[in-house]
Amino acid sequence: MSRRTMALLSQWTSRVFSVDMDGETVYFKIHDTQTGKGGKEVLRMFGNIQKGASCYSLLVSSGEKIHSARFHWKLKDKLSTALPPQCRFSPMCSFLPGVRDSLVHGYFLQAPSSDSSATTERLLRQWLRLDDPLLVCSYLHEENTPRWIQHLWNTEQNHGIVPSEAPESHPATLNLINSDVFYSFQAARDVLQKCADIIPEAASVLELLPCDGDMEARSKPDFPIIVLEGLDATGKTTLTESLRDALGATLLRSPPPCLSPWRARFDQEPPILRRAFYALGNYITAQQIYSQTSKTPVIIDRFWHSTAAYAIATAVNGPVCDLPAEGSELYRWPSDLLQPSVVFLLTLDPEERKRRLKDRGQGETKEEHELDLNQVFRLRVEEAYKRISGPTCISVDASSSAEQVLRQVLLLIKAKRYL
Ligand SMILES: Nc1ncnc2c1ncn2[C@@H]1O[C@H](COP(=O)(O)OP(=O)(O)OP(=O)(O)O)[C@@H](O)[C@H]1O
Ligand SMILES: Nc1ccn([C@@H]2O[C@H](COP(=O)(O)O)[C@@H](O)[C@H]2O)c(=O)n1
């Protein structure tokens, strides 16, 4: 048993477990006796479970972050293909309230019939024997009582389960730093260095990175550095191109085009690798900005706001009120990353954004449906954008014509003396 697994087991009774099921999150903990009474919430969750179904939880307990993240990521595919088709699985996690980096991820499984449950059990026992970094539990309903028992396979221990209050901040925030958001060049580079032997493309990205000496603070730029941010189809490309022409500026983007050959590869990886890749893209773009800013104004299509806001809004998967509170250290600007003179955040009414996506030839039928489902995600991204600290961020209503939006932004640039 690994040290990490032993540590997890030694805190088992202090841990809170959460399961995301049917759009709701249910929190429960275990009771140090075997007879914890299942309260209403736990019963509601288990009550939704089909009568006669067997339930299991799988938590990934590996000590090494990247290994653990990739294992958890691939486990989803493994579950989709190996489990009997009638089985359902939902995201779950376990954490120590208020303890940084204590979050472990996993899945909650339901096997609706005795056949599917037998196959599931056989499979899970095989996986455990393979020395996979898994903690496996099954949940048993005591007949004619409201009590549920959690049976931990790894130690053959039984505990009653009881409901737990939702934590003060979303559990994902416990592990955000250096797993979803990287606040220094070195922290993001470390991740790519550690995975270079398993992902050869990481070595190619590492070769493009600036040297440590190049990261040191530079003198104040001669010309303004203007970043355009916003959700997809809010008009960033259109506006950055017209600003470039209007100001005689240099147009850059993050991630920079030199990373394009590897972007799709990292987009397939779990957040720790994907986010480290995008974080590093900002540092490469920063180098390009440094080499231009003594010659012309620089316009940038997406920068740090996109990296941090999307990462936070993806990890924290509840309503907007679940985001880290305004002023949280999680919204800070990395101290070693160039700060632009100003950031313009393009905002757009969701209907108009959908219309523009449609006109662009996207967002029909299935995609359109997904966008609708993702409405809460979009609200979280927009709110996270606004909470990021560092350079001045000005929201711009981008619903008028392209010419009017350009005029509005040019006026702001002049009025605020960025030029
Ligand atoms: N102000 C505007 N009024 C109407 N249509 C616009 C306006 N600005 C851009 N568009 C159109 O909306 C679509 C999306 O614009 P654009 O590609 O500039 O957005 P974007 O933010 O760069 O998107 P993405 O992030 O997905 O690349 C394009 O078809 C563009 O021509
Ligand atoms: N600086 C950046 C830029 C982008 N991202 C991520 O890419 C996605 C949006 O990019 P589009 O090219 O589709 O507009 C989004 O999922 C961001 O997570 C980033 O992280 N950092």
UniProtKB/TrEMBL annotation:
Keywords annotated in UniProt: ATP-binding, Coiled coil, Kinase, Mitochondrion, Nucleotide-binding, Pyrimidine biosynthesis, Transferase, Transit peptide
GO cellular component, one term: mitochondrion
Annotated localization: Mitochondrion
GO BP terms: dTDP biosynthetic process; dTTP biosynthetic process; dUDP biosynthetic process
Cited PANTHER family: THYMIDYLATE KINASE, UMP-CMP KINASE 2, MITOCHONDRIAL
Organism taxonomic ancestry: Eukaryota, Metazoa, Chordata, Craniata, Vertebrata
GO terms of molecular function: ATP binding; dTMP kinase activity; nucleoside diphosphate kinase activity
Superkingdom as given in the UniProt entry: Eukaryota
Domain Thymidylate kinase-like, chain residue ranges per copy: 228-408
Entry protein name: UMP-CMP kinase 2, mitochondrial
